[in-house]
Amino acid sequence: MSEANKEIKSLAVLCSGGDSPGMNCAIRAVVRTALGRGLDVYGIKRGYAGLLEGEFEKMNASSVGNIIQHGGTILQTSRCLDFHQAETRKEAFHILKRKKIDALVVIGGNGSFNGAWELHNEHGIPVAGIPGTIDNDITGTDYTVGFDTAVQTAVEAVDKIRDTASSHARTFIVEVMGRKSSAIALHVGVCTGAENIILPTKDDSDIDFAAIAGDIQRGIKRGKNSSIIIAAEGETPGVSHRIQTVLRDEYKIDAHVCILGHIQRGGNPSSLDRFLASRMGWVAVDGLLNGEKAFATCFIKGEVETLALDKCLEKRNEYRPYYEGLAKALSI
Ligand code: F6P
Fold first, then answer.
1. Beta carbons of 130 and 145 less than 8 angstroms apart
2. Which end of the chain has less neighbouring CB within 10 Å, N or C?
3. Is 135 assigned a catalytic role?
C-alpha cells in the first residue's frame, strides 16, 4: 500500500441535487469497492443537508443489496442552498472530521460538484464527484448517470403519444426536462422522429413559430397525419402552452400538450446507466486511494477516467446544431 493509500481509512458517500436513475448503482459500487479495499464506509442521508444534520449510516455489503435495479436513491437527496455559504461548509468539514471520515464521494450534478470543490479547496478533504443527473450537462464527461434512462423513458412516452397522434391526425407538443440543457430534447427528438425540437429558452424569443407552423403544414400536404414537437421546459414554466396558444391563434393549428415532467427522473436504470455508474463508483474509490484529491469520474470516448474536479464545474449546454439538423433531415 502506498503512502497515499494509508491516508484514507474511511469514506462517506452522498447524493445531492435532483435524483437520477443509476444513483443506487453508483452507491453500491462505491460501498462495495471501498469495503473490498478495507475501508469503513458511511452513507450520508439527504445530501449536504443530511451531512449538516449528522445523518450518517455505517454501510456494509448488505446495505446496498438488491438496489442495483431501482431508480431514485436509497440515501435520498436534497438541494441544499445553505451549502453555498463558506461558514456552512466549515461546519460540514468539522462534522466529517468528528466522524473520522477521510474522504467524500458526491454523486450529483453541477451544483453538487461546486459544493464538493469548495469543501476541498477550503479544508483540504479529498473529494470525488460522480456525475449523476438526467440533464447530461456536466463539462468533462460525455455522459452522466441517468441520462440514458431518462431519454429512454421519454422516447417510450412519445412513441405512445404518436399512436394517438396518428390515429386522430393530431399535433402534439411534448415537453421534456431541461431548464438550460438541450440534451434530452435533442436526443428524444432524433429518436422519435419529431417534426420539431424546441431548445431551452429564457423567454420564448428564440422560438420561430412561423417555422414550426410551416413544418406542420408542409407535413400535412405531403400526407403526414401527425406531428410531434419536442419542447425543452426552458427557464420559464409554461412554454408548451404558450406554443399551443400561438399555433392556435396565429396559424389555426390545433395542438395538444403533454408534459412528461418527473416521470423522466424515475424508473429502473438502463443497462447503460448501471454499467456507467458501476464503473464510476469503482474508479471514484480507487482514485481516492491512489492519492487523487479532487476529481470527477468522467466518461471520455468509452473509458471512465478521472478529471480534475475544477475542470468539471461548468454547466454545459450540449447544444449540437447537427442533432437538430439530423432530426429535421429525417422527419421531412
Ligand atoms: O435534475 C435535473 C432536473 O430534472 C432538470 O431537468 C429540471 O429542470 C430540474 O431538475 C427540476 O428540478 P426539481 O425536481 O427540483 O423541480
1. yes
2. N
3. yes
